[in-house]
Structures are given as structure tokens and as C-alpha cells.
Amino acid sequence: MTQSTQWGAVLRSTEHLTLASQRRLLGRDSLAREYSVADISPVFRANGTQAPDSEDYNRLLEGGFADWRLQVDGLVENPLSLSLSELKHLPSRTQITRHDCVEGWSAIGQWQGVGLGKILDVARLKPGARYVVFHCADELEVTFDGSGRYYESIDLFDAYHPQTILAYAMNGKDLPVAHGAPLRLRVERQLGYKHAKYVMRIEVVSGFDMLGGGRGGYWEDRGYEWYAGI
Ligand SMILES: Nc1nc2c(c(=O)[nH]1)N[C@H]1C(S)=C(S)[C@@H](COP(=O)(O)O)O[C@H]1N2
Ligand SMILES: [Mo]
Fold it and tell me: In the chain, which end has fewer C-beta atoms inside a 10 angstrom radius, N or C?
């Protein structure tokens, strides 16, 4: 083992400890703080991709996302392909929460969407399912092998948390393109980079070592921690 891989192993083991201790402290279903309408930030910064630069995405956007579908596949008994209007007809949750970006800014916004757990229940998890991966429409770094595409993952513990939603509305309006139209993840007890925007496909997996750089997310592959608890 080289020194850097040893150090990596140490970092990963403390990451695991933090995760375990945070979860002990927070409890399984503890909620992130929710705010009132008066607290909503007048300006909510957009970060990372603000308009995916792809022909496929632009075609969907021009059509008002009528042809967009959310794919749900991987370790599920019942793979799904859901339109935006189908998603909007499912029971929804609305929450006003604070978004914290690792770069040092925060903003409070209202989000409306479908509980991720609800969608997973309809898709029915297969044995071995452990993580949910979000595949996004945007390429943050232009490579020629798709490795610059944004993706993220969370475990089932966070997937079934009551505030984990796939949001299609922000501050009472359709989700703007800059904030991830037509659908983005809100996973309220973790930092901003976990909140995948432009979600196209949800894949249920037993592990994410075979995906991307193997660390479970675009920024994780570039050194950020996988568990980004606030
Ligand atoms: N698909 C995708 N999701 C993404 C990003 C991105 O560049 N692409 N940036 C992340 C980061 S670092 C943050 S802070 C939030 C920003 O969300 P906002 O643009 O709604 O403020 O989205 C996260 N999700
Ligand atoms: Mo961020």
C-alpha cells in the first residue's frame, strides 16, 4: 500500500465513524429544520450546472418536458418510466428548508415533490438493494467517455427519510432550469452537492464501485466525502 492509499483508508474509516455517530445522534427519522414562508431567501443562488448543454436536454426543455420520463431501474421488481404529470399526480410533500453549499453559502427555499420512498415502494426493491443512484442530464466536465456526467447516490436510510423528495416545484412555481428542471433531489440532512439536479434516471444498486470513479458521486470521485451530513 502506498502512503496515499493508506491515508485514503484512514480518511474513509473516519468518514464511516462520523456517519455512524451522526446517525446515533440524529436518530433514524430526525427532521432537518423547516422554516416559514417569511424566511424564504429573496435570492437563491444557482450553483454548478445552470443549463445542461446537451441536445437531448434542450429538446425536452423546448417541449415543456412533455416527453421527459423518469426511469427507475436496477434492483427493482417493477422498473418504472414516469412522466412529469404522473409524478405530479402522486401525493406530494412541501417543505421550506435551508440549502447549505460546501462552498460557504446557504439559502432557504420551498420545495414540493414526491417522496422518494413512495417511488421505491411502487418499484419494489429487490433483495440486495442498498443505494439509490441519481443519473443527471448534465455533463459538468466535458470528457468523451461520459465520465464528466453528474451523478449522486444515497443509501436507503436517507432514501426513505420523510424529507427526501424528488422536487418539481420551487417557491410555488415549476422548478426553474437553473435549479434542476424538471426534477431534482432534496436530501435535507446533507450538503448541497448531494442534491442532484436534472435527474433523468434512478438506479437501485447493491454498491457503487462499478459506477463512475467508484466513490458514489461526481464530486466524491474528485475528493468530496460520500456522506455529507450537515
Ligand atoms: N446535476 C447537477 N446537480 C447538482 C449540481 C450540478 O452541477 N449538477 N451542483 C450541486 C451543488 S454543488 C449544489 S450547491 C446544488 C446547487 O443547487 P441550486 O443550483 O439549486 O442552488 O446543486 C447540486 N446538484
Ligand atoms: Mo455546492
Answer: N
Ligand nearest to the CA of 103: 2
Q: Whose CA is nearest to atom 2 of ligand 1?
A: 197
Q: Are residues 37 and 151 in the same domain?
A: yes
Looking at the predicted structure, is the pLDDT value of residue 2 above 50? Answer: no
| 14/98 same-domain check | no
Please tell me if the CB atom of residue 136 comes closer than 6 angstroms to any atom of ligand 1: yes
Residue range(s) defining the domain that contains residue 4:
1-28
Question: pTM surpassing 0.85?
Answer: yes
Overall average pLDDT of the 199-207 stretch: 98
Q: Please check whether residues 22 and 76 belong to one and the same domain.
A: no
48 C-alpha to ligand 2 centroid (Å): 7
Indicate whether 81 pLDDT > 50: yes
DSSP-assigned letters across all residues of the chain: --HHHHHHHHHHHHHHHHHHHHHHHH-TTPPPP---GGGS-S-----S-SS---HHHHHHHHTTTTT--EEEEESBSS-EEE-HHHHHHS--EEEEEEEE-TTS-EEEEEEEEEEHHHHHHHH-BPTT--EEEEEEEEESS--SSSTTEEEEEEEHHHHTSTT-EEEEEETTEEPPGGGTTT-EEE-TTB-GGGS--SEEEEEEES--TTSTTSSSSTTGGGT--S--B-
Atom of ligand 1 nearest to the CA of 178: 19
Same domain, 54 and 127: yes
82 and 195 both lie in a single domain: yes
- Give the ligand whose atoms come closest to the C-alpha of residue 140: 1
pLDDT of residue 132: 98
Mean pLDDT score of the chain, rounded to an integer?
91
